[in-house]
Amino acid sequence: MLLAALDRLAAYPQPRSVRTARPRALQRRPPPYLIVQPADLVHFCELEGSYPATSKGGDLYVANEFNWGDGCQSPHLEQVAFIPQVCLTLPSASCGPAATNEIPIVSTDLTIFPGYSRGVGNDFPRIAVSDSKGTVSIVWNDTRSNPQADILLQSLWLGNLVPVQFAPVKLNNDIVIGTMHFLPSLRHADAKGLLNVAWYDRRRNPNSAETDMYAALAVDPTTMSTPASNVRVTNVASDWLSVGSIINPNFGDYTDNFIDISGTTSTMFVAWSDGRFNIPQPFAAHQGVK
After folding, report:
1. Is 150 left (phi over 0), alpha (psi -120 to 50) or beta?
2. Dist. CA 265–CA 208, nearest whole Å
3. Given this model, what pLDDT does residue 65 score?
């Protein structure tokens, strides 16, 4: 109704007082969103896969992949931004990121994962804040040491985003080169401030498309070394080469997990796309964590 009335006013000459009057709802206002990472208007690299995490005080941390799809002449990066809670005002943000950092990665954007219907992967980071450890951490899949990727962890100190580790830490503890590790999940820290990360993994049959979910449990975000053990989450592997789907990609762009800290012990819930019935289905499992 309002738009129709404005159209009629525009169609017929009106006195200046009528022509310049605009309903309050249509007056120009600042956009109701915050630009966390500005668009790349030089090389036109894509920024994709953003994910947020918050501290107990309400500060916001956002991670994303820079140069998704290998579509520009710039290095691949994981970008992290810190936005203080005081900036997150309505109807528009009153200030922007107070600190940012960029972590160089070796991308899976040109890596072929057999059975994954999109063919190549992505390096979308997952992020979590550990208030008790004073860190914000990201995890991603990376091919610097393994052509089928490893799961890497990099933590930063809250506020200033200075790196905790001198180099990213590998979370999958197997060592067979050519074994796929793909699409890690991480949402938040457990009650002790530790991280629990799950991912797709082919260590039981490295030269096949037989895929499980594995996890690294109770990882200190300040660790400098690979966990001594990983846990198999699935009880049946999925052969991705025998699983089709009308949805592309057949096994999604991510996995997910959630840490329940409401009881006396923390419980990790993991969700993933499972192909044991020869069609992708949502599956979940849970396990107590230390």
Report:
1. beta
2. 37
3. 96
Q: Report whether pLDDT(212) > 70.
A: yes
DSSP conformational letter for 87: G
Pick the closest to residue 128 from 76, 177, 75, 171 (CA basis). 171
Buried (b) or exposed (e) across 8-18, using 16+ Cβ within 10 A? eeeeeeeeeee
Match 């208007």 to its residue by tokens. 41
Distance in angstroms (rounded) separating the CA atoms of residues 223 and 30:
42
Question: In this predicted structure, what is the pLDDT of residue 157?
Answer: 98
Q: Tokens for 158?
A: 């809250």
pLDDT tens digits along 20-43: 555 555 556 666 788 899 999 988
Q: What pTM does this model have?
A: 0.88
Domains within the chain, CATH numbers bracketed:
35-289 (2.115.10)
User: Cα 172 to the chain's mean position, in Å?
Assistant: 18
